[in-house]
C-alpha cells in the first residue's frame, strides 16, 4: 500500500482490477482503455508525457500545506464594498452540520424525490422564505447568482409581456456587474436596453410605456431607498413586466417588491449566512406573482402526495426544463445552488422572523451610527434615505480608499470625490468596538472623535427611509421558522432532514452523465478557511494574490489536460460554460465580419441544455441525425454542413457521446466542420472518460466547457454548486468572458511547446456571464487539491478505473439487460446504458419500477430515460470499490428475477414488489399485510439488507398530482398529521 | 361527440370535427397516450385569430410539453374551460370531454386525413 492519494480516491485496488480485467479479457487497464478509445485521438500521438505541466502528485498533507501557504497570501480585510456582497455570520451549527457535512454536500439533484425528502424540505423552506420576504406568490430554488437572476428576469419579462416592444428599461442605479451582464446577454438575443435614472424619472415619461420590461434595483447600488411603485405602475400600463432586484435582509424592514407592484423579484441570499468566498458560490433567487409560475426558470420544489396519500415533496414542472424543451427552451439554467440555498434557508429557520428583523435593524442602525458620527466630525454624508449603504463626499476618493485599506477596511470608489461603504451583520456588531473610530480616522483624520458617538445612542426604531416604505406585512409565519431557535433544536432538525436523504455517505450513486465520484475530505478542507471564505469579490488585487495564484495554476492545469490554450473559471455552472463558449465563437466570427455565421449544429443525442444555450447565444439550432448505434450520422452531418456552408457557426458535440461511447469518427466530424469555416464546441460533460488518454484540443475541439463538479470532484451539493469553466484555443481566447471588476484581466495562455517556459498571457475580452469575476472561487481549491494530489498519472489511473468499472458492469449485466450502445471492440466508455424496454415489453415492469425498487435494495437509481427513454444509464465512477459494484450488480440481477416472476404470473402485474416500491417501514408494519408478496420480500429482498438498510421516508410519489395541484411553499403542519 | 371514425385528423395527432362553420379540435388518444399524464393545458383566448400550422397552445404532461397547432385558419369561438381545470380529461376522454378549442372556419377545409389514413400513419 502506498500513501498516494490516488489509492484513496480510486476504489478498486490492483487485485480487484485484475479480477475485473480477467472477466473482460484484457491484460491491463491501459490495454482496455486503449482498445476503447480510437487510436487516432490518443494523446501519445500529440505529445510526450514529459510535456505535461502538472506537478508530480503531492500527499494529502503536503497539498494542504501548499494550499495553506497560497491562502495566506490572501488578506482578510473588512469588506464594506457592498454591491450585493456583504459579510455575514454563518451560524456554526449550520457550517458544521450543512456546509461541512457530506450528508448534505455529496447528495445529487433531487430527481429521485423519495430519497431526497430532507433537502426538498430544506429547499421549500428557502422558497417560502423568498416568497414571504419578496411579497410574491412563488419562488424557485434557486438561481446561480444575482446577476444571472436579473438576466433570467429580463428573459421571463420578454416572454410574459403582452407588449411588442423590444426594449427593456434598466435602472442606472443597478449594480455595475448586473448592468454588464445585462448588456452582454441582451446583445446576443437582440434586446435593446434603455438606461434610465428611475428614481428621478417622471411617472409620465414616454420611455416608460414603450418596453416589455423594467428593472429596478431596490435599494439602489448607491444605497438609496426610494419608492418605485409609481414608476412600476406607469411601465406596467404600457405592458411591461416589472423586475425588482431586492436585498432580502432589507426586506425585513422595507416594503416588499410584491406590495410595490413587482411581477418578478430577483436577488441573492448570500448575506443569509453564506460566506463571501471571493464571489461565490451563493444562491440567487427568483420569485414571481401568480400567473407567471409556469414561466419560472430553474428548479421549483412542490408538494405532492405519495402512494398512500401522505404529503411528499418533489421537483415540480420539470417538463419545463431545458432538457426536454431543447431548442424551444426559454432558459438554459440547469444547475441550481442547492447547498447554499439550504444554508440561507436554514439561517432564516434558525433566526426566525424576529431574529432576522433584529439583524437587519442592527445593520440599518449601524449605518445610522456611522452617518451621524461622520456628520458630527464635519464629513459630508450624501445619503438621506438608505438601508445599509452610505455615500460620502471626500476630496480624493482614491486616497480615502487607500487610507482605509491600510487600516484593513475596504471601501468603494464611486467617483473621484465620492466613496461608498456598506454595513453588514459583522461590521454592525463591531461598531461598538474599534471600527467606528477607525472609520472616523479615515474620513476625518485629525478630527477628535465627537463625544456623541455612541452606538447605543441610536434608538431601536431608528429609520432612515420614508415612512411609507416601512414594512407592515408579516413574513415567515410558518412554524418551521418559529421553532428551531435553540442550537440543540437546530442541530436535530438538520440531522432529521439529512437522515431522510440518500447521499454518497450511504452508498453508490451510479448516475450516468453525472460522475458521482468521491469528494475527498482533504479537498474540502480549504473551503471554510477564513482566507478563502471571507474575501469580497471586488477586493483589491493586492488582497487576493493567493486566490489569483490558485486560479492561475488551475487554469494552466486544466488547459494542459484538455489540450487547450486558455481557460476561464468564471462560468458558475456547466450551462453557463456552454453559453460562454458559444458567445466566444459568436464573438470570433463577428470579429472577422462573419455576421451571418449563426447556425449551430447539434446532434439528436445531445443534452438538451446544448440547444438551450445555443438559442441564448443568439444562434439557430439545426439538428443532426444519429445512426442506430447512437453515433453522429456522418452523411447527415456532411449534408447539413454543406447546406449551411455560408452560415455555419459551430457544431456542438459531446465526447464521449451522451450514449457513453467513444465515437470512432470524431476526427472526421471535426474536420468537416472546420473545412466549412465552423468552430467545434466539445461538451466536456463526459471528460471523466478521457482525462489522461485523449484531449479535446488534439482532436479538433476549439472550445469546451468542463464540469468541475463532475470530473474534478466539486461535490454536487444536492443540486449545486457547479463550476463550468470554459477552455479554448488561442484564437477564441480573447472572446472568453471578462468582467469589468476583475482584479486581473490577463489569463495564462499556453505557449506553444517550442517557446519553452515562457509565460504568455491573454486578456479575456468577452462580456461577463457571472456576477463575480471568477465565478465561485471558494470551491476552486477542491479541484486544485484533486489535481495536485493525483498528478498526471493519478488522473489517468482514475479514468482507467472508471472505464474499467463501467465495462465490468456492462459485461456482468449484459445477459440480464441488453447494453444499448458500444464502440470499438464492443466496449463502452465510463458509463453504460441498460435497455429496459424489452423487459417492459415482456413483463410490464417499467424503468420507474426498477428505479424505485433499487431504493428498497439500498441504492440510488442510475439516470432514468436519458439519453434514451425506457433505459437506465449507469456510471459507477472510479471511486467505488469492487464490493459496492458487486452489491449493485446483485441488486440488478435480483430485480430481474422479480420481474421474471411477474411475467410468469407468480405475482400480479399490479401487486408485486416492483410496482409497490419503494417500501417504507410503516408500509410493512401498519395494518394487515394484504399483498401477494411477503413483507420480507418487500424490504429485505437480500439478507445483507437486514444489517444495512436505508428506509425511504415516503412511498412512490405521484408526479402528475403535484403538477396538477401546484403548491410550492411549506405545507401547514396539519398536512402531516 | 362523434365516433373517431367520423372525425378528420392531422399528422400532428389532432382531430377535427366540422359542424357547419365550426371546427372542434382535440388531440387523439394516441397522442394523449404518448404524452402520458397531462397536467396542464394552455389554450388561446376566445376571439384569437389562428393560422393553420401555428402554435396556439400547449399540452404539458409529466414527461414533456406538446404543442397545440391550429389545424385550420379561423377564429377561436370557444375553449374548453373544463379541460383547463381538469387536464386529466385529455387522457380519460380525448375524443369527448377532452376537446380543446372550437374555431369558426371560412369554408371547406382541405388536406386533412381520414380515419383510415390516420390509423395507417400511427401504424394501427
Summarize this entry quickly.
By secondary structure, chain A is of the alpha/beta class. Helices cover 36% and strands 12% of the residues of chain A. By secondary structure, chain B is of the alpha+beta class.
What's the layout of helices and strands?
The complex is a heterodimer of chains A (977) and B (124).
Chain A: H1 6-9, H2 14-24, H3 29-36, H4 60-71, E1 78-79, H5 92-99, H6 102-105, H7 117-134, E2 138-139, H8 146-160, E3 167-171, H9 176-188, E4 192-196, E5 213-218, H10 229-237, E6 241-246, E7 264-268, E8 284-288, E9 300-305, E10 311-316, H11 322-325, H12 338-376, E11 380-381, E12 389-393, H13 397-406, E13 409-410, E14 412-415, E15 418-422, H14 425-443, H15 487-498, H16 521-524, H17 530-533, H18 545-562, E16 566-568, H19 574-591, E17 599-603, H20 608-616, E18 620-624, H21 634-643, E19 648-654, H22 666-675, E20 679-684, E21 703-706, E22 726-728, E23 746-749, E24 760-763, H23 780-813, E25 832-835, H24 837-843, H25 847-856, E26 863-864, E27 871-874, H26 882-903, H27 921-925, H28 935-939, H29 959-964
Parallel strand pairs in A: 1-13, 3-4, 3-5, 5-6, 6-7, 17-18, 17-19, 19-20, 20-21
Antiparallel strand pairs in A: 2-8, 7-8, 9-10, 11-12, 12-15, 14-15, 16-22, 21-22, 23-24, 25-27, 26-27
Helix pairs in contact in A: 2-23, 3-23, 4-18, 4-23, 5-12, 5-15, 7-12, 8-9, 12-14, 13-14, 18-23, 19-20, 21-22, 23-26
Chain B: E1 8-9, E2 14-19, E3 22-27, H1 29-35, E4 38-42, E5 49-50, E6 55-61, E7 65-69, E8 74-79, H2 81-85, H3 89-92, E9 101-104, H4 115-121
Amino acid at each position: 500500500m502506498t500513501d498516494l492519494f490516488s489509492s484513496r480516491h480510486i476504489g478498486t485496488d490492483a487485485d480487484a482490477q485484475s479480477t475485473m480485467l480477467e472477466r473482460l479479457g484484457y491484460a491491463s487497464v491501459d490495454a482496455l482503455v486503449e482498445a476503447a478509445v480510437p487510436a487516432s485521438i490518443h494523446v501519445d500521438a500529440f505529445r510526450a508525457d514529459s510535456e505535461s505541466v502538472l506537478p508530480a502528485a503531492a500527499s494529502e498533507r503536503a497539498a494542504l500545506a501548499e494550499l495553506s501557504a497560497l491562502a495566506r497570501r490572501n488578506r482578510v480585510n473588512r469588506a464594506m464594498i457592498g454591491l450585493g456582497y456583504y459579510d455575514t455570520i454563518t451560524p456554526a451549527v449550520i457550517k458544521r452540520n450543512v456546509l461541512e457535512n457530506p450528508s448534505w454536500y455529496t447528495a445529487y439533484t433531487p430527481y429521485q424525490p423519495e430519497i431526497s425528502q430532507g433537502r426538498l424540505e430544506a429547499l421549500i423552506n428557502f422558497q417560502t422564505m423568498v416568497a414571504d420576504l419578496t411579497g410574491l406568490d412563488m419562488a424557485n430554488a434557486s438561481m446561480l447568482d444575482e446577476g444571472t437572476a436579473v438576466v433570467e428576469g429580463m428573459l421571463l419579462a420578454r416572454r410574459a409581456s403582452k407588449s411588442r416592444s423590444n426594449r427593456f428599461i434598466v435602472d442606472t442605479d443597478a449594480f455595475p456587474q448586473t448592468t454588464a451582464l445585462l448588456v452582454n446577454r441582451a446583445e446576443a438575443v437582440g434586446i435593446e436596453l434603455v438606461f434610465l435614472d428611475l428614481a428621478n424619472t417622471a411617472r409620465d415619461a414616454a420611455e416608460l410605456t414603450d418596453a416589455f420590461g423594467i428593472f429596478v434595483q431596490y435599494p439602489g447600488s448607491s444605497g438609496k431607498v426610494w419608492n418605485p411603485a409609481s414608476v412600476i405602475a406607469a411601465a406596467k400600463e404600457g405592458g411591461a413586466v416589472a423586475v425588482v432586484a431586492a436585498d432580502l435582509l432589507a426586506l425585513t424592514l422595507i416594503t416588499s417588491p410584491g406590495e410595490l407592484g413587482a411581477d418578478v423579484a430577483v436577488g441573492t441570499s448570500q448575506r443569509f449566512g453564506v460566506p463571501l468566498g471571493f464571489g461565490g458560490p451563493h444562491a440567487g433567487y427568483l420569485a414571481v406573482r401568480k400567473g407567471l409560475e409556469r414561466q419560472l426558470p430553474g428548479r421549483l420544489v412542490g408538494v405532492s402526495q405519495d402512494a398512500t396519500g401522505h404529503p411528499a415533496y418533489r421537483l415540480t414542472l420539470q417538463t419545463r426544463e431545458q432538457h426536454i424543451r431543447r431548442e424551444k427552451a426559454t432558459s438554459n439554467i440547469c444547475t441550481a445552488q442547492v447547498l447554499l440555498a439550504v444554508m440561507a434557508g436554514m439561517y432564516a429557520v434558525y433566526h426566525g422572523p424576529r431574529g432576522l428583523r433584529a439583524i437587519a435593524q442592527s445593520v440599518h442602525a449601524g449605518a445610522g451610527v456611522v452617518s451621524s458620527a461622520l456628520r458630527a466630525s464635519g464629513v459630508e454624508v450624501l445619503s438621506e434615505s438608505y438601508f445599509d449603504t452610505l455615500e460620502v463626499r471626500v476630496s480624493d476618493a482614491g486616497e480615502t480608499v487607500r487610507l482605509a485599506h491600510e487600516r484593513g477596511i475596504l471601501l468603494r470608489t464611486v467617483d473621484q470625490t465620492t466613496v461608498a461603504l456598506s454595513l453588514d451583520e459583522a461590521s454592525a456588531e463591531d461598531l461598538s468596538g474599534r471600527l467606528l473610530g477607525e472609520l472616523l480616522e479615515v474620513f476625518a483624520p485629525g478630527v477628535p472623535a465627537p463625544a456623541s458617538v455612541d452606538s447605543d445612542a441610536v434608538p431601536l426604531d431608528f429609520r432612515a427611509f420614508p415612512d411609507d416604505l416601512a414594512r407592515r406585512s408579516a413574513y415567515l409565519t410558518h412554524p418551521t421558522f418559529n421553532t428551531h431557535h435553540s442550537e440543540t433544536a437546530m442541530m436535530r432538525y438538520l440531522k432529521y432532514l439529512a437522515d431522510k436523504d440518500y447521499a454518497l455517505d450511504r452508498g453508490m450513486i451510479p448516475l450516468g452523465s453525472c460522475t458521482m465520484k468521491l469528494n475527498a475530505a482533504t479537498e474540502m478542507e480549504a473551503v471554510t478557511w477564513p482566507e478563502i471564505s471571507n474575501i469580497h469579490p471586488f477586493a483589491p488585487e493586492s488582497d487576493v494574490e493567493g486566490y489569483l495564484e490558485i486560479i492561475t495554476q488551475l487554469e494552466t492545469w486544466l488547459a494542459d489536460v484538455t489540450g487547450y490554450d486558455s481557460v476561464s473559471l468564471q462560468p458558475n455552472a456547466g450551462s453557463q460554460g456552454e453559453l460562454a463558449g458559444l458567445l466566444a465563437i459568436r464573438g470570433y466570427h463577428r470579429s472577422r465580419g462573419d455576421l451571418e455565421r449563426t447556425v449551430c449544429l447539434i446532434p439528436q443525442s445531445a443534452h438538451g441544455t446544448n440547444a438551450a444555450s445555443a438559442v441564448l447565444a443568439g444562434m439557430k439550432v439545426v439538428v443532426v441525425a444519429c445512426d442506430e448505434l447512437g453515433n453522429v450520422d456522418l452523411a447527415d452531418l456532411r449534408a447539413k454542413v454543406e447546406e449551411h456552408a455560408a452560415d455555419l457557426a459551430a457544431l456542438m458535440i459531446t465526447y464521449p457521446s451522451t450514449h457513453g461511447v467513444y465515437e470512432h469518427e470524431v476526427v472526421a466530424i471535426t474536420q468537416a466542420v472546420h473545412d466549412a469555416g465552423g468552430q467545434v464546441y466539445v461538451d466536456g460533460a463526459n471528460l471523466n472518460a478521457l482525462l489522461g488518454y485523449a484531449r479535446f484540443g488534439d482532436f479538433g475541439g476549439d472550445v469546451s466547457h468542463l464540469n468541475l463538479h463532475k470530473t474534478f470532484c466539486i461535490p454536487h451539493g444536492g443540486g449545486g454548486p457547479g463550476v463550468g469553466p470554459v477552455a479554448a484555443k488561442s484564437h477564441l481566447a480573447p472572446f472568453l468572458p471578462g468582467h469589468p471588476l476583475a482584479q486581473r484581466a490577463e489569463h495564462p495562455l499556453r505557449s506553444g511547446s517550442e517557446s519553452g517556459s515562457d509565460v504568455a498571457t491573454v486578456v479575456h475580452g468577452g462580456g461577463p456571464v457571472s456576477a463575480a469575476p471568477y465565478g465561485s472561487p471558494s470551491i476552486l481549491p477542491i479541484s486544485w487539491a484533486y489535481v495536485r494530489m493525483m498528478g498526471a498519472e493519478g488522473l489517468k489511473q482514475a479514468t482507467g478505473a472508471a472505464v474499467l468499472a463501467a465495462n465490468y458492469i456492462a459485461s456482468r449485466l449484459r445477459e440480464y439487460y441488453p447494453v444499448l450502445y458500444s464502440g470499438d471492440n464492443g466496449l463502452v466508455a465510463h458509463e453504460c446504458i441498460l435497455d429496459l424496454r424489452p423487459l417492459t415489453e415482456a413483463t410490464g415492469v417499467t424503468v420507474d419500477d426498477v428505479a424505485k425498487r433499487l431504493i428498497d435494495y439500498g441504492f440510488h437509481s442510475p439516470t432514468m430515460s436519458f439519453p434514451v427513454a425506457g433505459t437506465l444509464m449507469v456510471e459507477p465512477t472510479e471511486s467505488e470499490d469492487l464490493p459496492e459494484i458487486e452489491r449493485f450488480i446483485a441488486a440488478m440481477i435480483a430485480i430481474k428475477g422479480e420481474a421474471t416472476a411477474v411475467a410468469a404470473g407468480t405475482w400480479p402485474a399490479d401487486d408485486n414488489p416492483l410496482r409497490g416500491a419503494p417500501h417504507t417501514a410503516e408500509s410493512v408494519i401498519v395494518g394487515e399485510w394484504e399483498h401477494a408478496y411477503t413483507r420480507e420480500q418487500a424490504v429485505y429482498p437480500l439478507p445483507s439488507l437486514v444489517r444495512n438498510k436505508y428506509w425511504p421516508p415516503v412511498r412512490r410519489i405521484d408526479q402528475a398530482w403535484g403538477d396538477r395541484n401546484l403548491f410550492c411553499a411549506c405545507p401547514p403542519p396539519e398536512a402531516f398529521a | 361527440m362523434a365516433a373517431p371514425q367520423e372525425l378528420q385528423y392531422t399528422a400532428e395527432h389532432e382531430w377535427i370535427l366540422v359542424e357547419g362553420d365550426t371546427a372542434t379540435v382535440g388531440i387523439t388518444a394516441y397522442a394523449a397516450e404518448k404524452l402520458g399524464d397531462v397536467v396542464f393545458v394552455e389554450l388561446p383566448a376566445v376571439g384569437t385569430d389562428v393560422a393553420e400550422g401555428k402554435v396556439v397552445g400547449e399540452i404539458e404532461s409529466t414527461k414533456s410539453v406538446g404543442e397545440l397547432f391550429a389545424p385550420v385558419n379561423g377564429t377561436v369561438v370557444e375553449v374548453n374551460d373544463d379541460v383547463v381545470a381538469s387536464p386529466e380529461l385529455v387522457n380519460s376522454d380525448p375524443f369527448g370531454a377532452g376537446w380543446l378549442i372550437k374555431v369558426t372556419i371560412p369554408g371547406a377545409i382541405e388536406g386533412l386525413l381520414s380515419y383510415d389514413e390516420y390509423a395507417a400513419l400511427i401504424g394501427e
